[in-house]
Design a protein that fits this description.
The protein is mostly helical. It is built from nine helices and no strands. The protein has one domain.
């Protein structure tokens, strides 16, 4: 169950990257906005119901201070992604100016690094909930962990396509574009497994780790996904698909949890 759960989001990314073999044209701008908005909605809902709420419930014995572990863990996640954002050179789609330290990496490498960067907290999120299931935590169920893994896999599918299709349009071969898309998702099972291992050593820190993953995921949403879904000519498609992604993840968490 653990290995399969950790691999589900990675399978979603790989399946999305495989679209490069079946679609002839690069994804249109409105479709990219729609898919980005959908991904943002899933991540926000997952951060709340699958991570922050269980973190607070696990700290209920602290009374009025039950929010404290979630509060501190959330901010540690924000600061961790802020640090990665400054030390890893990367380039967001539709942006010409690279972020992070100066680097001789080419555009393709930095685009892949940008997607890889925001896949890290997703892998951590899946890892920490499965660690919670293994620990016997009543607030985290096997169904809830599966819901999170499936939700992230669903939003990873368009992300895989969003990275492989433009690379192919820029002149990369279809197999190379596919493997670069797959490569961007490898960090998810890796960081998921690392999180499981660390959580096993630090079970009392579970509320902090849950909210840490939530903070890291929300950093990605606000710093990257929302600007991308709103860039350019005004359109409501990103907002509508944000709501679709949010409600779908909420329903999955309640139905399977």
């Amino acid at each position: 169950m653990l290995i399969g759960g950790l691999l589900i989001p990675f399978i979603g990314t790989s399946a999305g990257a495989a679209c490069v073999f079946f679609l002839r044209r690069e994804l249109s701008v409105p479709l990219q906005r729609a898919l980005t908005g959908f991904a943002a909605g899933v991540m926000v809902a997952a951060s709340i119901w699958s991570l922050i709420v269980p973190a607070i419930e696990q700290s209920s014995g602290m009374g009025r201070l039950a929010f404290a572990p979630a509060f501190l863990g959330f901010w540690m996640g924000i600061l961790f992604l802020l640090l990665l954002d400054h030390v890893i050179p990367h380039l967001h789609r539709n942006i010409e100016q690279a972020e992070g330290p100066k680097s001789r990496l080419n555009r393709t490498a930095m685009l892949v690094l940008a997607v890889t960067l925001h896949n890290i907290p997703e892998g951590m999120a899946v890892g920490v909930v499965y660690a919670g299931v293994r620990s016997g935590s009543g607030e985290i169920t096997a169904g809830g962990a599966l819901a999170l893994a499936l939700g992230i896999a669903i939003q990873n599918f368009p992300e895989g396509a969003i990275i492989s299709m433009p690379l192919c349009a820029e002149g990369k071969s279809k197999p190379k574009s596919f493997w670069l898309g797959v490569l961007s998702g490898v960090v998810e099972p890796v960081f998921g497994a690392l999180t499981v291992a660390l959580t096993g050593l630090l079970l009392p820190a579970m509320p902090y780790l849950l909210s840490f993953a939530a903070g890291a995921m929300l950093y990605v949403v606000v710093e990257e996904l929302i600007p991308e879904m709103s860039a350019g000519e005004h359109s409501n498609i990103g907002v509508v698909l944000f709501a679709v992604g949010f409600s779908l993840m909420m329903a999955l968490d309640v139905a399977l949890g």
